[in-house]
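Researcher: I'm comparing several assemblies side by side, and this is the next one on my list. It has 656 residues spread over two chains. Same procedure as the others: predict the full complex and return the structure.
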Amino acid sequence: MNGFQTQTGARAAYNGRKLSEYLLTAPSFLWLTLFFAIPSVLVFAIAFRTADPSGGIDAGWTLASVESVLKNAYLGVLWRTVWVSCAVTAICLALGIPVGYWIALQNPKYRYWLLLVVIIPLWTNFLIRIFAWRVLLHPDGFLRQSLVALGIVPDDVFFLNNIGAVIVVTVYTCLPFAILPIYAAAEKFDFSLLEAARDLGASRFCAFRRIFLPGIRRGIFTATLVVLIPALGSYAIPDLVGGVDGEMLGNKIAAKASAYRNLPEAAALAAFLSIIITLPVLLFLLKQKRIIRSVVAARRSAGDSTK
Amino acid sequence: MAIKKILRLFSAALAASVCALIFGCGPSKPELNVYMWSDYIDMDLVREFERQNSCKVVIDIFDSNEFMYSKLKAGGTGYDVILPTSYMAKVMFDQNMLEKLDLSKIPNSKYVNQKVLSDLAIDKKMEYSVPYMLGYTCVAYNKGKIGEIPATWDVFSNEKYAGKMTMLNDHRETIGAALFFTGKSMNDSSDQALAKAKEVLLKWKKNLAKFDNELYKVGIQSGEFLIVQGYSGDIFQVLAESPNLAYMCPKEGISMSCDDWVIPVTANNKDLAHKFINFLCDPKNAAKNMEFTCYSAPIPEARKYVSEENKNHPGMFIPDDLYKRGELIRDLGADNSKFNALWDAVKGN
């Protein structure tokens, strides 16, 4: 009798907890459904509709748009989008890790000032900062003129309107987003571990590579995602500082939706892009799950009863 | 405590906005919602129209015909009068999106140039549209740095200016220029013509810094670019500010475009919309508008009211020889996709 009562009591408590959990997650769940899931499904659906030549969506269903997107014509743009984004991510990590490491080592009194310096450029509008780069890299600008005068740069090399400019400006806009998560991870890192590694005979670089980098891998992973994903979808930067060969997938999607009046092809390209973005993330998450599971299994088999 | 304070503030704000709603508007004036291109109308005229008709004019801006069209197609309503380019007005009319105009409510339509209507216009009888401004595409260059250049589209093949030239990021205009250069019409969608145009474009592309519709205006002024293809109104506005720049109109042919006022079937205030179109066709108002935009209103009578220095302005009064070389962009229906594929191929290489 008594046992039954406690059981129902526990169940009621459990149900109550479950209900409150549902209620707590409901707003974000609704938000994601309304503004992420439904639009994504619509994009994927429109990709299979027929286009009417005046620019609308017709009633029929077709594979033509998807086929045309998968045809060779877009492989060039796709390849450029991927390699530019990967290059940008690599450069951002190469710059962001040392900066994050350095800031985390500073006296806490100054750390926040240093972080402020990283963030301050974000107070200025994104487009205005890109236009500032156009001034900086201008062919008659101070930078190029002085480099040409010093003989470092030949006269027929321009800094603007090429893929190099796209990479430089994208790295510039993404760098704060790489530094912040790396710093956040590095701040929690126990730097005495590095000293321990040195005591055990590791070289400075070896300690950095084998102790520090794995120690902040979550920060590095977050930084990779927050740089790579926006870079893959970038549109304004290639448009403003890119040249005749600077187009990326984002620009193609915009052209299809407006100038070409072909919404299904725009949708097919957009769907394609989101698949490209989702795949690596999904693979990573699966791999991580497997690692966690194998760790748990290893512990169990070693007789570790603490959960 | 804090929550109480916030609540009090919030209720005060709510009360204030309710009061504003009740007392702010008073008897509401009729509203005319205009949907058009930016910097394309003299705001003094708009204010005068508001005074004359005791109404309020709200202007909303689009930057491409296609964007405007897709917004309307997606259910955008509330616009009383819209200013698409002729080819798009035709598309909209064919889709039953436009009201038939009542010309008896637009008496000033008699001033519209019959020659322009018969030569260029798609809607020759002003059944659903009234032409507003004519413009063309030409080439601006930095005369101070490179001297006089010949009037031909072939300048873009000159390697001397490599990396310092731009063409429009508009497939119809840029492919059109290549078609003109090969001696074809810019609306020619035959496979041979397009194949030849592609060859020409690929040659030009090697020398271009960019395909661009906006930055070229600042770029040509600042010396970043030496030669740019652009729209006449934009180019004349830039030329007025920089005396070292000049322009030329390629001898092979130029594209002309005409923007037309139309009234969508969903308009709330059709009478006022007719009045607005009529107001802008008035020769005095057209003259004022031309001097503001540097584009050409097809109202010959307006020339009387334009100031002396602008009476022969090449943007406001298109010279006869140019007018003869000009061609209007037409909608190609299903053949649009050929132009799209060609443009993809040119840009992707």
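Model: For your comparison table: The first strand of chain B starts at residue 31 and ends at 36.
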